[in-house]
């Protein structure tokens, strides 16, 4: 097997990830950003191990650093001319115009304002006396200067998000702001609320825990950044290559071997990378060309890598840092989240592996020849040190320490191993480059998570989440009442208005999650969906943990759902295939991820950790029937089981799979009935093909 090229992967990621497409700056300014990024990364690393400062100072420092780097490196409007360095003028220095420097000054000032004015201020300067009571006394009655700085921070944050992720997210946030301020003017009665003045809105967004300086910014500044940095350093020291080599040993020899290698290695690396795009271009730069070499169509090779990489964001133990955010939201131990997510993630990979297998069988693609499969002992001998940091990180996490303490020891171990490991040694220059790259990755996440704090604040102060939940339920009831007479003839006793309403509500919420999650990093999309969409599930009686996993799953699906599927487009660029077709391939390969959330909502026993629902009988029944159902759906998507099947039989096996994943004995019987003619046809076709082959 070829070696992963880290530099090539980073170049590919920059090409397809808009959050890494920066402008050219002068050599002096480039050196400054390089040094500052190292200092910024070092600050987070040191504070993770020694303890973070007071929250408003720590979050202010993180935000100030993000603002500085965003407005230096990202132009207001992207274009070819921003890749050219022009000379300094009175309005441009280092290729950064004066208005961006103004944004920097305003952003840093607003970020530190909360900390500076936390306690009483009484100053006299040049005959002017400035007095400001301590922050707690200004709650509900902000000073005018509070409103000014709060407004500045919101404007700067929205612009930072627009530059790093595009206009969609800022537009969504502006809609929420309008809703908060003009609540009485809303067109629907259910959405109306008294509204708030701009002063009180700033008071709610700027100071309290549910606003900008809330849980979202806290998590991104204490957890997300650290795991992004760990993933980059781990990749530099050879952990990604070790994952690929191990996957090759165990999966490479079987039918469709290279595609299965891609699935397994991407699952391993995706869980720590924090970015499905990063995972796609890292492992995909190696696996996609190899898959094409073995006969896979370009769109399928790219789709396999994109689907597997996106799956890493829902795969324990790290889940792209979403697990830590979820634990914070639900006030549950981290280990509880991981245990609950284990079986659903497994179901996703059952679907991907099954489709890969069936597609390979249909295309006549074999596994790798034994000469291209490395020996297990050689792989372990060469790569086992690279796995030590991950083992240490997981051990510290499961020992009950904080996530940032686990990241600290993971990074520390990675640095130690990387510096002394003779097989994959890294130097000081590599560490510095990793820090700079990690900071680049963290800019868009840092900006958008801080801005999403506005959404969280609006939802919490206006009760919007429950209002939207009620609207979803009402729409679902109306749709259910219209469709119930059309399907009431179907001999399934479980179909009634209540069950139909729940199902339609879940579908509507799932579609909403896919649309709202498009183009967002995993952590940011989960925070937004947990705030906006999850309360609707709570209104339907869905357990809190199941509802949070539900919105996370469908949010991550947006990463492989056309037309906005950045991971699939990155894979298409490597494969040289049609982006939209690659996206469709990735979406169909992720069929398990599409179905499984519905299963654990109806049968929470799959999540294991909910004692009011869990019994071994219910767990085994739900897991087994779900696995079989996903397997059948994979067969339908591929048009193959043990022999090719026509459209009619693909429809029958799809119906069988859908009924199999549905809870209840009666649905299982229907699934068996639909599957029986398919099995007969497949066995007959298989025997015929063998007979012809012997002639």
- Uncertain runs are none
Q: How many separate helices?
A: 28
- Terminal CA distance: 38 Å
How many β-strand stretches?
4
Q: Order of strands across the widest beta sheet?
A: 1-2
Estimated radius of gyration: 26 Å
> Strand content of the residues, in percent?
under 5%
Shape: globular
Mean pLDDT: 83
Tell me the major beta sheet.
2 strands, antiparallel
DSSP helix fraction: over 70%
Put the structure in a nutshell:
This protein is mainly α and 695 residues long. The chain is 71% helix and 2% strand. A two-stranded antiparallel sheet has the order 1-2. A two-stranded antiparallel ribbon has the order 3-4.
Describe the 3D structure.
This protein is mostly helical and 695 residues long. Helix content is 71%, strand content 2%. The protein has helices at residues 6-16, 27-50, 55-73, 98-116, 144-165, 168-181, 198-206, 215-236, 239-251, 257-273, 276-293, 298-311, 322-330, 334-363, 376-398, 403-420, 428-462, 464-487, 497-517, 522-532, 534-539, 544-557, 566-575, 579-589, 591-602, 616-638, 647-661, 665-694, and strands spanning 92-93, 96-97, 121-125, 128-132. The strands form two sheets. The chain has a two-stranded antiparallel sheet. β3 (121-125) and β4 form a beta hairpin. The model has no long low-confidence stretch (mean pLDDT 83).
């Amino acid at each position: 097997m070829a070696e992963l090229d880290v530099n090539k992967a980073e170049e590919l990621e920059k090409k397809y990830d808009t959050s890494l497409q920066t402008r050219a700056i002068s050599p002096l300014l480039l050196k400054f950003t390089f040094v500052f990024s190292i200092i910024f990364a070092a600050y987070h690393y040191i504070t993770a191990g020694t303890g973070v400062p007071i929250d408003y100072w720590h979050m202010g420092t993180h935000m100030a650093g993000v603002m500085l780097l965003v407005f230096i490196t990202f132009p207001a409007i992207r274009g070819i001319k921003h890749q050219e360095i022009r000379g300094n003028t009175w309005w441009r220095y280092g290729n950064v115009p004066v208005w961006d420097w103004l944004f920097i000054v305003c952003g840093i000032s607003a970020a530190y304002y909360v900390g500076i004015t936390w306690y009483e201020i009484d100053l006299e300067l040049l005959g002017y006396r400035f007095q400001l009571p301590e922050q707690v006394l200004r709650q509900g009655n902000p000073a005018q200067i509070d409103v000014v700085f709060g407004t500045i921070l919101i404007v700067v944050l929205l612009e930072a998000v627009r530059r790093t992720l595009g206009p969609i997210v800022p537009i969504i946030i502006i809609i929420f702001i309008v809703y908060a301020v003009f609540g009485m003017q809303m067109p629907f009665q259910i959405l109306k609320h008294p509204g708030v003045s701009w002063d009180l809105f700033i008071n709610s967004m700027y100071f309290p825990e549910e606003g900008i300086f809330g849980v979202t910014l806290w998590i991104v500044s204490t957890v997300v950044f650290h795991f992004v940095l760990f993933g980059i350093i781990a990749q530099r020291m050879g952990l990604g290559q070790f994952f690929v080599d191990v996957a090759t040993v165990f999966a490479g020899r079987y039918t469709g071997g290279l595609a299965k290698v891609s699935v397994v290695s991407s699952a391993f690396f995706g869980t720590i990378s924090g970015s499905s795009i990063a995972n796609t271009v890292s492992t995909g730069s190696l696996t996609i060309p190899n898959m094409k070499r073995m006969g896979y169509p370009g769109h399928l090779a790219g789709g396999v890598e994109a689907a597997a990489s996106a799956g890493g964001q829902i795969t324990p133990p790290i889940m792209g840092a979403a697990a830590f955010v979820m634990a914070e939201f639900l006030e549950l131990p981290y280990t509880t989240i991981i245990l609950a997510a284990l079986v659903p993630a497994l179901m996703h990979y059952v679907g991907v592996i099954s489709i890969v297998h069936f597609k390979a069988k249909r295309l006549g693609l074999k596994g790798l020849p034994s000469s291209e499969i490395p020996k297990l002992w050689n792989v372990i001998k060469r790569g086992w040190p690279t796995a030590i940091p991950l083992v240490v990180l997981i051990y510290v996490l499961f020992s009950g320490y904080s996530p940032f303490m686990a990241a600290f020891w993971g990074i520390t171990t990675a640095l130690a191993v990387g510096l002394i490991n003779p097989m994959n040694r890294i130097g000081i220059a590599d560490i510095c480059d990793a820090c700079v790259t990690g900071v680049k990755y963290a800019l868009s996440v840092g900006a958008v998570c801080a801005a999403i704090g506005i959404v969280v604040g609006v939802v919490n102060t206006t009760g919007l989440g429950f209002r939207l939940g009620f609207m979803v339920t009402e729409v679902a009831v109306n749709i259910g009442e219209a469709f119930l007479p059309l399907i009431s003839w179907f001999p399934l006793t479980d179909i009634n208005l209540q069950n139909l309403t729940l199902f339609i509500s879940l579908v509507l919420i799932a579609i909403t999650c896919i649309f709202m999650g498009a183009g967002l990093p995993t952590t940011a999309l989960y925070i937004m969906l947990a705030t906006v969409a999850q309360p609707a599930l709570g209104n339907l009686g869905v357990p809190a943990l199941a509802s949070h996993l539900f919105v996370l799953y469908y949010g991550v699906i947006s990463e492989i759902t056309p037309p906005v599927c950045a991971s699939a487009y990155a894979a298409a660029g490597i494969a040289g295939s049609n982006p939209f077709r690659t996206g469709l391939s990735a979406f169909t390969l992720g069929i398990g991820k599409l179905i499984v959330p519905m299963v654990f909502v109806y049968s929470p026993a799959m999540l294991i950790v909910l004692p009011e629902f869990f019994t071994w009988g219910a767990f085994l029944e739900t897991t087994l029937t779900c696995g079989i159902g996903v397997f059948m759906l994979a067969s339908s998507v591929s048009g193959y089981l043990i022999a090719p099947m026509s459209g009619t039989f693909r429809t029958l096996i799809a119906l069988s799979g859908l009924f199999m994943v549905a809870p209840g004995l009666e649905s299982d019987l229907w699934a068996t009935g639909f599957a029986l003619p398919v099995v007969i046809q497949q066995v007959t076709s298989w025997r015929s093909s063998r007979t012809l082959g012997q002639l």
